[in-house]
Amino acid sequence: MGSAPGWTGGGRVSTVLGRKLGGELYKLRVAAGKKQQEASDALSATPTKVVKMESGSVPMRDPDVKALCELYEADAEVVRQLRELARRDRERRKVKGWWDDELTPAKQVEYISTEDAALSVRQWQMAIIPGLFQTPEYLRAMGVADLSCDDLDRIEDVVATRLKRQARLHGDEPLKIHAVIWEAALRQLMGGPEVMRGQLSHLCELTKLPNVQIQVLPFRAGAHPCIGGPFSILSFAEEGAVDVVYQDTARSTIWYEDPAEGADYAALFARVAGASLSPYDSVQFIDSVSKGLNE
C-alpha cells in the first residue's frame, strides 16, 4: 500500500498527530488507486492542499476528512477514527509553547515542539555531545566555530533556548532519554580542555537522574551498524501517535514516521547500544577521558 514520504522541515509547522493523520489518508488514497488531482477535486481545492494535508503541515477540518474518506471508500469506523485524530490534532496545534518566540531559530521550532510532546527519546550521536546534555560553555564554543563573525550575537539566544529544552530532564514528568555517544564526541576538544572537563563532568552528573541513561561506544568496538550518521527516535504517550525518527544534516531536516522505518531505526539503535559499554562502565570511561585531559 506504500507509505507517505518522510516529511522535510520547512514551511508551516506540522504536528505528530497531524503527520499521522496525513500518512493514513495517503495510504488510503494509494490503496484506492486515486491520484492527488482526484482528491483535490473532491475537496474543490488545489493539489497543493492535498500535499499539505498528507504531509500533516495544515490542520484538517472534519468535512475534508469525510470527503476524502468517501472518495477512498473507507468504512465508517476508519472515518470515525480519522475524524477523532483530526480533532485531537487541531487541539494540539492551539497550544503555544515557549519555542514560539522570536529567539528560537525557525529550523528548530518543529523539532523542539515535537520533543516537548515526547515521552522518551533514544538518540545516537557521533561527533558532538547530545544537545540536551550540553553545558553553556560547550555550546558557546560550538557556536563560535559554527557562526560567522556577523552572527556571534545569536549565540546567547541559542544558549537560552537550549537551557529551556534541558528543563525537560527535570520536574514531575521528565523526558526519558537513552543516549549512545561515540567516543569521538568525548575526545573532540570543543572549547579546549577546561570546557571539555566541565562537559564530561556534567555528563557523569546527569547519569544520576533516573530518567537519563548514557552509554559510550568506544573506538575499540570497531565497525558498528550506525556509521551512517546520528539520529533520534522520539516516542509519545498520545494514542495514535507512532514513533518519529529525526535526522538533521547540514543541508536538510528529515522525519521518518512509517512504522516499518521506525522499527528499522529502533533495531539499529538496539544494536549500537548492545555494542556499547554498560551505563556503569560508560561513566567510568567518561571519567577516565576527563582525567586524561589533565595530562
From TrEMBL:
<feature type="domain" description="HTH cro/C1-type">
    <location>
        <begin position="24"/>
        <end position="79"/>
    </location>
</feature>
<protein>
    <submittedName>
        <fullName>XRE family transcriptional regulator</fullName>
    </submittedName>
</protein>
<dbReference type="InterPro" id="IPR043917">
    <property type="entry name" value="DUF5753"/>
</dbReference>
<dbReference type="InterPro" id="IPR001387">
    <property type="entry name" value="Cro/C1-type_HTH"/>
</dbReference>
<dbReference type="Pfam" id="PF19054">
    <property type="entry name" value="DUF5753"/>
</dbReference>
<dbReference type="Pfam" id="PF13560">
    <property type="entry name" value="HTH_31"/>
</dbReference>
